[in-house]
Amino acid sequence: MRILHTSDWHLGRSFHRVPMLDAQRTFLDHLVATVRERGADAVLVSGDIYDRAVPPLSAVELFDDALHRLAAENVPTIMISGNHDSARRLGVGAGLIGRAGIHLRTDPEGCGTPVVLRDARGEVAFYGLPYLEPALVKDALGAAKAGHEAVLGAAMDRVRADLATRPAGTRSVVLAHAFVAGGEPSDSERDITVGGVAAVPAAVFDGVDYVALGHLHGSQRVTERVRYSGSPLAYSFSEADHRKTMWLADLDAEGSVTAERVDCPVPRPLARLRGPLTTLLDDPRHERHRESWVEATLTDPARPDDPMARLVERFPHTLSLVFDPERAPEDPSASYAQRLEGRDDHQIAEDFVAHVRGGSGPDEQERTVLRSAFDDVRVDDGVHEVSR
């Protein structure tokens, strides 16, 4: 059976205030074309279909269009809710939608009830484990405690119990939305830590043939049978080095898995540039990033004049500007008192200005303002002393 595994569409999300709806629409065109051209027998979407619990109407319309197009391909699609989705809202009408071959799994108590598909080699049971918020599902699943490993373990106990009742040779696939140990996170996933622990061991999924994970945005293989598809689009500059793909996985008669990555369309490449402003503006090596979305980190000791406007002249799609001035290292053995020894208030204030500017002290006009401020304070203190 050939499975197309994707996740983390985040419909309705923007990238640094740039709307991504057109790019998401292009991805869904690509998804449907891949289903058709590569002969997929099933499509798996492992959560975070929307970016927030109450998505904008434009995102709902795009999702609705995707459902109609997937149903028209007559290829079963199985979807679970992620931590960004509202499980109740996403699951509305699931029974009716299921008649069209689109199977929404949003109820944690349905973990042990699979969607069963058949190919020439027999049956494959697909179990949908929506995002399991430990405090909310602990009692419903009979978990020993409210932790990610405990509730996923309880859900997988239901999966294995159901699988044990099925004919010998039944192959099994689990969809889950979780942070599995060994996975590499990025800056764009919402934290799901509970009690200081977010990651669960891959061994919690033992006993099934393939685990289609969602949540982490980088496409990656935790084990041969446990994989993240990653998000189809980049949603933070920390994903600049990601290759955005889906997994096209083949499950043979014995349940062995072979998989390849299918590249997703890239609306615009990402570039993270670092250095003094003049270097970023003049270095010919950066010419290849002219049409990229750019995050620029300036290391100038003093903040340059009008840096964003100057960057946009060379890189029209600059979206993020960060200041990280390179500072001369201080003597780590010197205490705060030692560093202030012998310096008057005015010198300390000038040192502070130089510190926050990365080494560039106040100019003459600023020194005059500082001196005036200290003189006013001294006069004020004198008046108070006389009045007392």
The count of domains is 3
**Treating each run of at least 4 consecutive H or I residues as one helix, how many helices?**
11
Instruction: Please give the CATH architecture of the largest domain.
Output: 4-Layer Sandwich
Helix content: 25-40%
CATH class of the largest domain, please? Alpha Beta
Mean pLDDT: 90
SSE order in H/E notation?
Answer: EEEHEHEHHEEEHHEEEEEEEEEHEHEHHH
User: What is the CATH T-level topology of the largest domain?
Assistant: Purple Acid Phosphatase, chain A, domain 2
Task: Report, as a whole number of angstroms, the end-to-end distance.
Answer: 90 Å
GO biological process, one term: DNA replication
Domain Nuclease SbcCD subunit D C-terminal: 267-355
Pfam families: Metallophos (PF00149), SbcD_C (PF12320)
Family: Belongs to the SbcD family.
Protein model, in words:
One of its GO terms (biological process) is DNA replication. Residues 1-218 form the Calcineurin-like phosphoesterase domain. Residues 267-355 form the Nuclease SbcCD subunit D C-terminal domain. This protein is α/β, with parallel strands linked by helices. The chain folds into three domains: 2-263, Purple Acid Phosphatase, chain A, domain 2; 270-323, no CATH class; 336-387. Helices cover 31% and strands 23% of the residues. The chain has helices spanning 21-37, 57-72, 87-90, 94-98, 134-141, 148-164, 277-282, 307-314, 336-340, 345-356, 364-387, and strands spanning 2-6, 14-15, 18-19, 42-46, 77-80, 102-105, 115-119, 122-129, 171-177, 179-180, 199-200, 210-214, 220-221, 226-228, 245-251, 257-263, 270-275, 293-298, 318-323. The strands form five sheets. The protein has a six-stranded mixed beta sheet with strand order 6-5-4-1-15-16. Strands 7-8-9-12-14-13 form a six-stranded mixed beta sheet, covered by helices on one side. The longest helix is centred in the last third of the chain and has 24 residues, at 364-387. The chain starts with a strand and ends with a helix. The model has no long low-confidence stretch (mean pLDDT 90).
